[in-house]
Amino acid sequence: MFLGLIGLAVAFDSLWLIVLLVPFYLVIRYGVVAREEAYLEGKFGDV
After folding, report:
1. Sign, CA torsion 37/42/44/46
2. Closest C-alpha among 7, 9, 28, 11 to residue 19
3. How many structural domains compose the chain?
4. CA–CA dist 11, 20 (Å, integer)
5. Are 21 and 3 in contact (CB under 8 A)?
6. Where are the alpha helices (DSSP H) in the chain?
7. Of residues 20, 33, 27, the one with CA closest to residue 4
8. What is the rounded distance in angstroms from the CA atom of residue 19 to the CA atom of residue 27?
9. Which tens digit of pLDDT belongs to each residue from 22-33?
10. Model pTM above 0.85
11. Residues 6 or more apart whose Cβ sits within 8 Å of residue 28
12. What DSSP designation does 45 have?
């Protein structure tokens, strides 16, 4: 996803898309991945 967004930023010559990578990463990492990891750990237990 990140490489695709960087590619779009370069293709459209848009600096603001590159700037949006940081909040986009934070939302994905802590809003999606962290929740999914907690759910899966609760469902299947610790490794």
Report:
1. positive
2. 9
3. 1
4. 15
5. no
6. 2-11, 15-19, 21-26, 34-44
7. 20
8. 14
9. 999 999 999 999
10. no
11. 1
12. -
Tokens of 46: 């610790």
| Full domain range(s) for residue 32 | 2-44
Contacts 24+ apart (CB under 8 A), 14-23: none
Q: Give residue 46's pLDDT.
A: 78
Question: What is the pLDDT tens value at each position of the chain, 47 positions in all?
Answer: 889 988 999 999 999 998 999 999 999 999 999 999 999 999 998 77
- The rounded Cα 16 to chain-centroid distance in angstroms is 17
> Burial, 15: exposed, middle or buried (Cβ in 10 Å; 0-12, 13-18, 19+)?
exposed
Per the document, the length of the chain is 47
